[in-house]
Every structure is written in structure tokens, then in C-alpha cells.
Amino acid sequence: MLSKEYLDTARTILRAAQTMTDQHVAGQLKALAEDYERRAEKAEHADAAKSARSTARECERRVE
Fold it and tell me: Residue 23's domain spans which residues?
């Protein structure tokens, strides 16, 4: 679920960046939002791997 939280944070930061009149601050906020988007992608991959391991363990239990 971390991936959704990171994406939500990225979107919030981007909305704040769009309201900035100071382009330097807006640029920094956009860079921060991009970092959160990367974190969301990493978390999504980690969540998928964790789910796959869990499914594999469940299948092993059923075979036993």
C-alpha cells in the first residue's frame, strides 16, 4: 500500500508546485514529486514481489 501513499504525496506536491509563483520553488517541488513517483514505482515492485512470495508459500502449503 506504500505505492499508493507515495503517488498521493507526489500528486499533492505537484498541485502545490502549480500554484507557486516562484519558479525556483516550483522546480524544487516538481523534483521532489518526481522522487516520490520513483519511490511509488519501487514500492509497487516490492509489493508485487511480496505478494508473489506469499502466493508461492500458500501453494506450497496446499501441496503438502
Answer: 2-63
